[in-house]
Amino acid sequence: MKNTLIFCIIGLLIISCDFDKSKTKTENQAISDTDKKRDTLTKHLKPFKTELPTIGLLMYNGVLQSEVIATSDVFAKPTEDGKQLFNVITIAETENPITTEEGMRFVPDYTFDNCPKLTALFVPSAYDMYAQVHNDKIVNFIREKNKETEYIVSNCAGAQLIGKSGIADGHKIVTWIGGGEQLQEDYPNLKVQDDAKISFVEDGKFSSSNGNLVSYITALNLVEKMTSLEHRKFVESYLYLDQLKNWKE
After folding, report:
1. Which residues contact 181 (CB under 8 A, 6 or more apart)?
2. What are residue 106's phi and psi, to 5 degrees?
3. CATH homologous superfamily for 54-245?
4. What is the CB neighbour count within 10 angstroms for residue 228?
5. Of 83, 194, 66, 84, nearest to 122 (Cα)?
6. What value does the mean pLDDT take over residues 41-62?
7. The whole model's pTM is what?
8. Of 222, 219, 218, 233, which is closest to residue 79 (Cα–Cα)?
C-alpha cells in the first residue's frame, strides 16, 4: 500500500512536470509568434538617420499621387547590399491626412513647422493648382527651403508653385504637356521650355518634368547625381523599368 502511494505521488509529479514543460513551450511559441508578427509589421520602417541626406516630398490635398510615389519609389531603394542611403519624408501644411486626386489618404511625416533640414525638395502637382498657388504658407515654405536645399525639383504643374515663389527666375523649366504657354505668361522671368518636345530639363539646382510617370525621370536623374550611375541602374532594375519599356513584346 505504501509503495503504491509512493508510485502515485511520483506519477503525479511527472505529469505535473510534463504539463509545466508543455505550458512553457506553448508560452514560448506564443512569444515567438508575437515577435514574428512585430517584425513583419516594423521591418519595413526606415529610421530617420541624421547623417543621411533627406529627400522631402511636398503634399497637399488634390496632389497627383504618382508624383509622390515615383520619388519615394526611387530614393527609398537601398544599395545592393541593403544599406539605406536616404531619409525620404512627406511634408504637408498640417499633420492631418491629405487626400490625393485619386482619392487615397496619405498621412504626412512632418509639417511646415517641424520639417527637418532638406537636401532636396520635390514639388508635385494637382490638376487644379489655384488653391496651392494662392496658399502663401505653401509658397513661403518653398522659398524658405530653397535657402537650405541643394536641389529643387518640380513635376508637372508643380512648376507653377516654383514660378510663384520666384526661386527659379532666370532658369529653364518645363511643365505638363500643354501648360507651358500659360506658365510663361504667368511667370515671365522663367525660361519655360517647349513641353511638347522636352519632358525633362535641368538648370543648376533646379530640375523639372512633364510629371505623372515622367516624374521617375527627375527622381532617377537626381539619385544618380547624388550616388552613382551604378546605383541608378540598380534602382531601375529593382523597379523592372526594362520590363515596362518592353511591355508590348
Report:
1. 192
2. -115, 135
3. Class I glutamine amidotransferase (GATase) domain (3.40.50.880)
4. 11
5. 66
6. 87
7. 0.82
8. 233
